């Protein structure tokens, strides 16, 4: 039946949920993938040309999303589906629903994805293909990891049916049901045994810590991305996957609003404090300027007084010099008159 297997055969995994009975409200926009979040290095390859992923861009048939190490991308499938592409992954849009009923599929060559799809319209399917799995869903939450030596499918909510594929044909006799909080881990040996014996692949129940670890991964998705989903899908993620009740959700919203209000109040208080410092600095500057002006005025007045004092001193010196000169002149004149009298007294009489 099989030659020596160098890689694992394909598996088909249909995910079972209730379908909508009416598709009257569906729109083609419900079947479009858009990039809503990217962290790290995320590229979109379209017609062989790679470009950096842009938030809000719609992906076309054949486009691939490639993430590097420590990088993730979140894709929305209309408002009814969410796909998180983890690091080191390569995911391509293999088919895209064009009518109210049809098939949408992603092909993941390597890496890991988390998918939530809720209430697809009747006649629609959603599949994730890997080198060993084809996962068809009608509405559930699951994670698929394509590892070098094995495949791992984890169901967080809902039920899935896993089928191996040989030569593009599902081996329905080897169908395996995987239910909520269960995992299917299959390597080449287990796959070969299931196909040859046409028997189910063993599943295991997740431990509580494993479920919690998966929920923590989902919690890393930004709330604003989840909020763009429709009400039912949003509830699916919050209630069934994250185990968040409506009361807890409302409480979390109130806490978030309280945190935002506290941040706004803190910012306002900080702004007021900074404005107060600026006002105080302005007042200090004005006071310093006034002090400088007063000091300059005092210096001018002192200089004026000093000049006036110098002028007065000069005037006193000049007056003293004039007085001394007059006195000297008077003494000289008196001395001259005395000498003339003496000479006159010494002249003999005839």
Number of strands: 19
Give the termini distance in whole angstroms. 187 Å
Task: Please state the overall shape, judged from the principal axes of the Cα atoms.
Answer: rod-shaped
**SSE arrangement, N to C:** EEEEEEEEEEEEEEEEEEHEHHHH
CATH architecture annotation of the domain at 10-244? Sandwich
Number of helices: 5
Q: What is the residue-mean pLDDT, rounded to a whole number?
A: 82
Characterize the biggest β-sheet: 19 strands, mixed
Uncertain segments: 1-7, 9-25
Fraction in helix:
25-40%
In terms of DSSP E residues, the strand content is: 25-35%
Which fold name fills CATH's third level, the topology of the domain at 10-244?
A: Jelly Rolls
Q: Quickly give the structural class.
A: alpha+beta
Q: Calculate Rg over CA atoms.
A: 48 Å
CATH top level of the domain at 10-244 is Mainly Beta
Sum this structure up briefly.
This protein is an alpha+beta fold and 350 residues long. The chain has helices spanning 188-197, 208-219, 223-226, 231-241, 246-345, and strands spanning 10-16, 33-39, 42-46, 49-52, 58-59, 64-67, 72-77, 81-85, 90-95, 103-117, 125-129, 134-137, 140-146, 150-157, 159-166, 169-170, 176-178, 182-187, 204-205.
């Amino acid at each position: 039946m099989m030659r020596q297997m160098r890689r694992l055969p394909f598996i088909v995994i249909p995910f079972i949920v209730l379908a909508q009975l009416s598709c009257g409200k569906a729109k083609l926009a419900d079947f479009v993938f858009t990039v809503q979040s990217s962290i790290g290095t995320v590229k979109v390859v379209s017609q062989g040309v790679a470009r950096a992923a842009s938030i809000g861009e719609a992906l076309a048939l054949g486009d691939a999303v490639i993430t590097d190490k420590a990088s993730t991308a979140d894709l929305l499938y209309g408002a009814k589906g969410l796909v998180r592409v983890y690091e080191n992954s390569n995911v391509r849009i293999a088919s895209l629903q064009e009518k109210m009923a049809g098939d949408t599929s992603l092909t993941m060559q390597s890496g890991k994805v988390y998918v939530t799809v809720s209430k697809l319209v009747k006649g629609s399917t959603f599949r994730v293909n890997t080198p060993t799995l084809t996962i068809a869903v009608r509405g559930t939450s699951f994670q698929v990891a394509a590892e070098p030596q094995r495949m791992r499918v984890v169901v967080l909510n809902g039920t899935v049916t896993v089928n191996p594929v040989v030569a593009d044909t599902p081996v329905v006799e080897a169908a395996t049901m995987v239910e909520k909080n269960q995992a299917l881990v299959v390597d080449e040996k287990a796959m070969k045994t299931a196909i040859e014996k046409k028997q189910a692949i063993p599943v295991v129940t997740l431990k509580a810590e494993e479920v919690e670890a998966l929920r923590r991964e989902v919690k890393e998705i930004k709330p604003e991305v989840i909020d763009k989903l429709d009400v039912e899908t949003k509830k699916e993620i919050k209630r069934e996957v994250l185990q968040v009740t409506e009361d807890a959700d409302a409480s979390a919203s109130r806490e978030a609003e309280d945190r935002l209000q506290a941040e706004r109040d803190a910012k306002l208080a900080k702004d007021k404090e900074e404005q107060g410092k600026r006002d105080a600095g302005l007042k200090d500057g004005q006071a310093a300027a006034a002090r400088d002006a007063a000091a300059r005025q005092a210096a001018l007045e002192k200089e004026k007084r000093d000049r006036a004092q110098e002028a007065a001193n000069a005037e006193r010196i000049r007056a003293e010099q004039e007085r001394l000169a007059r006195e000297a002149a008077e003494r000289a004149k008196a001395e001259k008159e005395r000498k003339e009298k003496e000479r006159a007294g010494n002249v003999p009489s005839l």
